Amino acid sequence: MRTSVIFQLLTAALALTLGSCEHKELCYDHSVRRNVYVEFDWSKAPDADPASMLVYFFPTSGDALAYTFTGRSGGQIALPLGRYCALTINGDMSERMNTRHTEDPDIFEVFTKDATQLSGGGFDARLLPRASGEESERMALTPDMIWSIRNDSIEMRDDDEGDKYIIFMPEEAVCHYTVDILDVKNLDYLHGASVDATISGMAEGYLNGHGNATDNTVTMPFTLKPSTGNESLHSEFLTFGECNTNKVSHRITVYLRLTDGTKWYHTFDVTDQVADAPDPRHVNIVIRGLELPQPVSGGGGFIPDVNKWNDIEINLPMWQ
Protein backbone atom coordinates (compact mmCIF):
# COMPACT_ATOMS: atom_id res chain seq x y z
CA MET A 1 0.00 0.00 0.00
CA ARG A 2 2.81 2.38 0.90
CA THR A 3 4.59 1.58 -2.38
CA SER A 4 1.44 2.45 -4.32
CA VAL A 5 1.16 5.85 -2.61
CA ILE A 6 4.79 6.66 -3.29
CA PHE A 7 4.35 5.69 -6.95
CA GLN A 8 1.31 8.00 -7.28
CA LEU A 9 3.21 10.88 -5.72
CA LEU A 10 6.15 10.37 -8.08
CA THR A 11 3.81 10.22 -11.07
CA ALA A 12 2.11 13.47 -10.06
CA ALA A 13 5.46 15.21 -9.54
CA LEU A 14 6.68 14.08 -12.95
CA ALA A 15 3.51 15.37 -14.59
CA LEU A 16 3.92 18.76 -12.94
CA THR A 17 7.54 18.93 -14.03
CA LEU A 18 6.73 18.13 -17.66
CA GLY A 19 3.83 20.56 -17.64
CA SER A 20 5.97 23.39 -16.29
CA CYS A 21 8.64 22.77 -18.94
CA GLU A 22 6.05 22.89 -21.73
CA HIS A 23 4.56 26.10 -20.35
CA LYS A 24 7.98 27.76 -20.17
CA GLU A 25 8.43 27.42 -23.95
CA LEU A 26 5.30 29.56 -24.49
CA CYS A 27 6.38 32.34 -22.14
CA TYR A 28 8.91 35.11 -22.60
CA ASP A 29 11.02 36.87 -20.03
CA HIS A 30 10.48 40.48 -21.09
CA SER A 31 13.32 41.63 -18.87
CA VAL A 32 15.72 39.81 -21.20
CA ARG A 33 16.72 41.66 -24.36
CA ARG A 34 18.34 40.21 -27.44
CA ASN A 35 20.33 42.06 -30.07
CA VAL A 36 18.69 42.23 -33.47
CA TYR A 37 19.61 43.91 -36.75
CA VAL A 38 16.86 46.02 -38.35
CA GLU A 39 17.24 46.39 -42.12
CA PHE A 40 15.24 48.25 -44.78
CA ASP A 41 14.83 46.73 -48.22
CA TRP A 42 14.02 49.56 -50.65
CA SER A 43 13.12 47.38 -53.63
CA LYS A 44 9.63 48.90 -53.80
CA ALA A 45 10.90 52.48 -53.43
CA PRO A 46 14.44 52.56 -54.85
CA ASP A 47 14.58 56.36 -55.00
CA ALA A 48 13.51 56.88 -51.39
CA ASP A 49 15.78 59.21 -49.44
CA PRO A 50 14.44 59.51 -45.87
CA ALA A 51 16.61 61.32 -43.34
CA SER A 52 15.47 58.80 -40.72
CA MET A 53 13.14 55.85 -40.17
CA LEU A 54 10.95 55.09 -37.15
CA VAL A 55 9.96 51.56 -36.15
CA TYR A 56 7.14 50.87 -33.68
CA PHE A 57 7.14 47.38 -32.13
CA PHE A 58 3.77 46.28 -30.69
CA PRO A 59 4.09 43.31 -28.29
CA THR A 60 1.21 40.92 -27.65
CA SER A 61 0.97 42.57 -24.22
CA GLY A 62 2.38 45.80 -22.90
CA ASP A 63 3.23 49.17 -24.42
CA ALA A 64 4.68 49.80 -27.87
CA LEU A 65 8.42 50.36 -28.25
CA ALA A 66 9.76 52.94 -30.70
CA TYR A 67 13.22 53.13 -32.25
CA THR A 68 14.74 55.72 -34.59
CA PHE A 69 17.31 54.92 -37.28
CA THR A 70 19.30 57.61 -39.05
CA GLY A 71 19.15 57.42 -42.83
CA ARG A 72 17.64 54.49 -44.70
CA SER A 73 19.96 51.63 -43.75
CA GLY A 74 18.74 50.56 -40.30
CA GLY A 75 20.93 49.36 -37.43
CA GLN A 76 21.19 47.20 -34.33
CA ILE A 77 18.86 47.37 -31.32
CA ALA A 78 18.21 45.30 -28.18
CA LEU A 79 14.60 44.05 -28.19
CA PRO A 80 12.86 42.24 -25.30
CA LEU A 81 11.87 38.64 -25.89
CA GLY A 82 8.37 38.15 -27.22
CA ARG A 83 6.10 38.25 -30.26
CA TYR A 84 5.50 41.53 -32.10
CA CYS A 85 3.86 43.19 -35.03
CA ALA A 86 5.66 46.32 -36.17
CA LEU A 87 5.15 49.43 -38.28
CA THR A 88 7.83 51.53 -39.90
CA ILE A 89 7.47 55.09 -41.19
CA ASN A 90 9.97 57.76 -42.13
CA GLY A 91 10.75 60.11 -39.28
CA ASP A 92 11.64 63.23 -41.29
CA MET A 93 8.11 64.52 -41.91
CA SER A 94 7.58 68.22 -41.31
CA GLU A 95 5.46 69.95 -38.67
CA ARG A 96 2.51 69.94 -41.09
CA MET A 97 2.11 66.21 -40.36
CA ASN A 98 0.52 64.48 -37.37
CA THR A 99 0.05 60.92 -36.12
CA ARG A 100 -2.61 59.50 -33.82
CA HIS A 101 -3.55 56.13 -32.27
CA THR A 102 0.14 55.21 -32.24
CA GLU A 103 -0.50 52.67 -29.49
CA ASP A 104 -2.47 50.35 -31.81
CA PRO A 105 -1.19 49.12 -35.19
CA ASP A 106 -4.73 48.56 -36.49
CA ILE A 107 -5.71 52.24 -36.18
CA PHE A 108 -2.28 53.90 -36.41
CA GLU A 109 -2.86 56.93 -38.65
CA VAL A 110 -0.94 59.72 -40.33
CA PHE A 111 -2.82 62.92 -41.22
CA THR A 112 -2.12 66.62 -41.77
CA LYS A 113 -2.88 69.75 -39.80
CA ASP A 114 -5.44 72.43 -40.65
CA ALA A 115 -4.73 74.77 -43.53
CA THR A 116 -5.49 78.24 -42.18
CA GLN A 117 -4.04 80.37 -44.97
CA LEU A 118 -3.46 79.76 -48.66
CA SER A 119 0.18 80.21 -49.59
CA GLY A 120 -0.22 82.03 -52.92
CA GLY A 121 -2.50 84.97 -52.22
CA GLY A 122 -2.55 84.73 -48.44
CA PHE A 123 -6.31 84.16 -48.41
CA ASP A 124 -7.92 83.12 -45.12
CA ALA A 125 -8.98 79.50 -45.66
CA ARG A 126 -12.01 79.97 -43.38
CA LEU A 127 -13.49 82.69 -45.60
CA LEU A 128 -13.15 81.06 -49.01
CA PRO A 129 -16.21 80.19 -51.09
CA ARG A 130 -16.46 76.39 -51.22
CA ALA A 131 -17.91 73.86 -53.62
CA SER A 132 -21.61 73.23 -52.98
CA GLY A 133 -22.18 70.41 -50.52
CA GLU A 134 -18.54 70.34 -49.41
CA GLU A 135 -18.49 73.42 -47.21
CA SER A 136 -18.17 71.33 -44.05
CA GLU A 137 -14.99 69.52 -45.12
CA ARG A 138 -11.95 70.37 -43.04
CA MET A 139 -9.33 72.38 -44.95
CA ALA A 140 -6.22 70.25 -44.48
CA LEU A 141 -2.65 70.68 -45.66
CA THR A 142 -1.26 68.36 -48.30
CA PRO A 143 1.07 65.65 -46.90
CA ASP A 144 4.81 65.19 -47.13
CA MET A 145 6.33 62.10 -48.70
CA ILE A 146 5.65 58.99 -46.61
CA TRP A 147 7.22 55.54 -46.76
CA SER A 148 5.67 52.85 -44.57
CA ILE A 149 5.00 49.12 -44.16
CA ARG A 150 3.78 46.64 -41.54
CA ASN A 151 5.42 43.39 -40.43
CA ASP A 152 3.41 40.91 -38.34
CA SER A 153 5.82 37.97 -38.14
CA ILE A 154 8.39 39.04 -35.54
CA GLU A 155 9.37 36.77 -32.67
CA MET A 156 12.31 37.18 -30.30
CA ARG A 157 13.31 33.93 -28.50
CA ASP A 158 16.09 33.21 -26.07
CA ASP A 159 16.98 29.99 -27.90
CA ASP A 160 17.50 31.62 -31.32
CA GLU A 161 20.93 30.85 -32.68
CA GLY A 162 23.09 33.13 -34.78
CA ASP A 163 22.43 36.75 -35.76
CA LYS A 164 18.80 37.88 -35.77
CA TYR A 165 17.49 40.11 -38.58
CA ILE A 166 14.19 41.98 -39.01
CA ILE A 167 13.63 43.22 -42.56
CA PHE A 168 11.11 45.87 -43.65
CA MET A 169 10.22 46.65 -47.28
CA PRO A 170 8.71 50.19 -47.17
CA GLU A 171 6.36 51.49 -49.85
CA GLU A 172 5.12 54.96 -50.79
CA ALA A 173 2.01 55.76 -48.80
CA VAL A 174 0.94 58.91 -50.69
CA CYS A 175 -0.42 59.76 -54.13
CA HIS A 176 1.10 62.11 -56.71
CA TYR A 177 -1.32 64.58 -58.31
CA THR A 178 -0.72 66.99 -61.19
CA VAL A 179 -3.16 69.66 -62.34
CA ASP A 180 -2.89 71.51 -65.66
CA ILE A 181 -5.30 74.28 -66.63
CA LEU A 182 -4.87 74.96 -70.35
CA ASP A 183 -6.06 77.74 -72.65
CA VAL A 184 -5.98 80.35 -69.90
CA LYS A 185 -6.75 83.86 -71.11
CA ASN A 186 -5.71 87.19 -69.56
CA LEU A 187 -3.18 85.78 -67.09
CA ASP A 188 -1.42 89.14 -67.40
CA TYR A 189 -4.22 90.55 -65.26
CA LEU A 190 -3.23 88.29 -62.38
CA HIS A 191 -1.89 89.92 -59.23
CA GLY A 192 1.08 87.93 -57.98
CA ALA A 193 3.13 85.08 -59.38
CA SER A 194 0.91 82.14 -58.45
CA VAL A 195 -2.71 81.03 -58.22
CA ASP A 196 -4.35 79.34 -55.23
CA ALA A 197 -6.64 76.36 -55.66
CA THR A 198 -8.24 73.58 -53.64
CA ILE A 199 -9.38 70.03 -54.38
CA SER A 200 -12.24 68.52 -52.38
CA GLY A 201 -13.13 64.98 -51.40
CA MET A 202 -9.59 63.83 -50.59
CA ALA A 203 -8.92 61.24 -47.89
CA GLU A 204 -7.95 62.86 -44.58
CA GLY A 205 -5.22 60.39 -43.67
CA TYR A 206 -3.46 57.07 -44.14
CA LEU A 207 -3.88 53.95 -41.99
CA ASN A 208 -0.35 52.56 -41.88
CA GLY A 209 -1.39 49.25 -40.37
CA HIS A 210 -3.82 48.51 -43.21
CA GLY A 211 -1.98 50.20 -46.06
CA ASN A 212 -4.93 52.28 -47.24
CA ALA A 213 -6.46 55.73 -46.95
CA THR A 214 -9.10 56.68 -44.40
CA ASP A 215 -12.78 57.14 -45.27
CA ASN A 216 -13.26 60.68 -43.96
CA THR A 217 -12.80 63.53 -46.46
CA VAL A 218 -11.03 66.89 -46.46
CA THR A 219 -10.36 69.70 -48.90
CA MET A 220 -6.67 70.33 -49.66
CA PRO A 221 -5.16 73.57 -51.01
CA PHE A 222 -2.39 73.73 -53.58
CA THR A 223 -0.66 76.38 -55.70
CA LEU A 224 -0.65 76.72 -59.50
CA LYS A 225 2.23 78.37 -61.37
CA PRO A 226 1.79 80.13 -64.76
CA SER A 227 3.67 78.75 -67.73
CA THR A 228 6.30 80.70 -69.66
CA GLY A 229 3.80 81.91 -72.24
CA ASN A 230 1.16 82.80 -69.64
CA GLU A 231 -1.32 80.47 -71.32
CA SER A 232 -1.55 77.68 -68.79
CA LEU A 233 -1.28 76.89 -65.07
CA HIS A 234 0.48 73.87 -63.57
CA SER A 235 0.78 72.25 -60.14
CA GLU A 236 2.21 69.09 -58.60
CA PHE A 237 1.42 67.99 -55.04
CA LEU A 238 0.86 64.97 -52.80
CA THR A 239 -2.38 63.67 -51.29
CA PHE A 240 -3.61 60.56 -49.49
CA GLY A 241 -5.73 59.91 -52.57
CA GLU A 242 -9.36 58.90 -52.65
CA CYS A 243 -11.04 57.42 -49.59
CA ASN A 244 -10.71 53.67 -49.18
CA THR A 245 -14.38 52.77 -49.64
CA ASN A 246 -16.26 56.08 -49.40
CA LYS A 247 -16.55 57.36 -52.99
CA VAL A 248 -17.34 61.07 -53.22
CA SER A 249 -17.15 63.88 -55.76
CA HIS A 250 -14.01 65.91 -56.36
CA ARG A 251 -14.01 69.59 -57.31
CA ILE A 252 -11.17 71.97 -57.96
CA THR A 253 -11.80 75.59 -57.07
CA VAL A 254 -9.42 78.25 -58.38
CA TYR A 255 -8.99 81.53 -56.44
CA LEU A 256 -7.50 84.62 -58.08
CA ARG A 257 -6.78 88.22 -57.16
CA LEU A 258 -6.54 90.63 -60.10
CA THR A 259 -4.39 93.73 -60.41
CA ASP A 260 -7.34 95.95 -59.43
CA GLY A 261 -7.66 94.07 -56.11
CA THR A 262 -10.84 92.19 -56.99
CA LYS A 263 -11.16 88.51 -56.05
CA TRP A 264 -12.51 85.83 -58.37
CA TYR A 265 -13.07 82.09 -58.19
CA HIS A 266 -14.45 79.22 -60.24
CA THR A 267 -15.13 75.54 -59.51
CA PHE A 268 -14.49 72.64 -61.89
CA ASP A 269 -15.86 69.12 -61.37
CA VAL A 270 -12.97 66.65 -61.79
CA THR A 271 -14.64 63.60 -60.22
CA ASP A 272 -14.36 61.41 -63.31
CA GLN A 273 -10.71 62.26 -63.91
CA VAL A 274 -9.81 61.27 -60.35
CA ALA A 275 -12.01 58.17 -60.14
CA ASP A 276 -11.05 56.87 -63.60
CA ALA A 277 -7.33 57.55 -63.40
CA PRO A 278 -5.40 54.53 -64.78
CA ASP A 279 -3.05 54.70 -61.80
CA PRO A 280 -4.72 56.01 -58.61
CA ARG A 281 -1.24 56.66 -57.17
CA HIS A 282 -0.41 59.03 -60.05
CA VAL A 283 -3.40 61.16 -61.06
CA ASN A 284 -3.18 63.72 -63.88
CA ILE A 285 -6.01 66.25 -64.05
CA VAL A 286 -6.43 68.44 -67.15
CA ILE A 287 -8.86 71.36 -67.42
CA ARG A 288 -9.37 73.57 -70.49
CA GLY A 289 -10.73 77.06 -70.55
CA LEU A 290 -10.28 79.74 -67.91
CA GLU A 291 -10.66 83.39 -68.85
CA LEU A 292 -9.77 86.00 -66.26
CA PRO A 293 -12.01 89.08 -66.19
CA GLN A 294 -10.47 92.34 -67.35
CA PRO A 295 -9.65 94.62 -64.41
CA VAL A 296 -11.58 97.88 -64.14
CA SER A 297 -9.30 100.84 -64.91
CA GLY A 298 -9.62 104.59 -65.36
CA GLY A 299 -12.33 104.89 -62.73
CA GLY A 300 -15.16 104.27 -65.17
CA GLY A 301 -17.88 101.65 -65.16
CA PHE A 302 -18.98 99.32 -62.40
CA ILE A 303 -16.22 98.55 -59.90
CA PRO A 304 -16.69 95.23 -58.05
CA ASP A 305 -16.30 95.13 -54.29
CA VAL A 306 -12.69 94.08 -53.57
CA ASN A 307 -13.84 92.30 -50.40
CA LYS A 308 -16.36 90.13 -52.22
CA TRP A 309 -15.66 86.89 -54.06
CA ASN A 310 -16.95 86.96 -57.66
CA ASP A 311 -17.66 83.81 -59.66
CA ILE A 312 -16.00 83.67 -63.08
CA GLU A 313 -18.38 82.64 -65.86
CA ILE A 314 -16.89 79.84 -67.95
CA ASN A 315 -18.21 79.35 -71.47
CA LEU A 316 -15.61 76.85 -72.68
CA PRO A 317 -16.24 73.17 -71.75
CA MET A 318 -13.80 71.33 -69.52
CA TRP A 319 -11.70 68.84 -71.51
CA GLN A 320 -11.56 65.27 -70.22
Mind sketching the topology for me?
Blueprint: H1 2-25, E1 33-40, E2 52-59, E3 65-70, E4 74-80, E5 82-90, E6 97-100, E7 109-112, E8 138-139, E9 147-156, E10 165-168, E11 171-172, E12 175-185, E13 195-203, E14 205-207, E15 212-213, E16 217-226, E17 233-239, E18 251-257, E19 263-269, H2 271-275, E20 282-291, E21 309-311
List keywords for this structure.
single chain; nine-stranded mixed beta sheet; five-stranded antiparallel beta sheet; 2 helices; elongated; disordered C terminus
What report would you give on this structure?
By secondary structure, this protein is mainly beta. The chain is built from two helices and 21 strands. Strands 8, 12, 13, 16, 17, 18, 19, 20 and 21 form a nine-stranded mixed β-sheet that branches. A hairpin with an 8-residue loop joins strand 6 and strand 7. It is elongated, with a radius of gyration of 29 Å. The C terminus is likely disordered.
The span between the termini is: 97 Å
Oligomer status: single chain
The major β-sheet equals: 9 strands, mixed
Query: From N to C, what is the helix and strand string?
Result: HEEEEEEEEEEEEEEEEEEEHEE
Radius of gyration: 29 Å
Number of strands: 21
Structural class: mainly beta
Please estimate the helix content: under 10%
Structural shape: elongated
Total of DSSP H or I helical runs spanning 4+ residues: 2
Average pLDDT figure: 87
Strand content: 35-45%
Low-confidence stretches: 5-26, 316-320
